[in-house]
Amino acid sequence: MSPEVAPALRRGWRLQWEPAQQRHVLLYPEGMVQLNESAGAILTLVDGRRHEADIVAALEAQFPGTAEIADDVAAFLAEAGRQGWLEASP
Length: 90
Known about the structure:
- It comes from Billgrantia aerodenitrificans.
- The protein contains three helices and five strands, in the order ββββαααβ.
- By secondary structure, it is of the alpha+beta class.
- Strand 3 and strand 4 (about 30-35) form a beta hairpin.
- The two termini are about 15 Å apart.
- The mean pLDDT is about 95.
């Protein structure tokens, strides 16, 4: 994903909190991806309106003093895009 694009979850995919697993999961027609805490925090902000910088700013406000948030978000969004989890917002 490019920083200039507002990422959105791929059509047909859904982020959901799973109480039994105490984690976010990404549901898609063929299955499910269990997410770690960082991935879940990032994907809760992926809505097709926020750009990468907006997501970073929201996470920096939520987790003040955490180092390298911008790098982590960029790396995660790039990998999620390569995995086909995200698409550019229409």
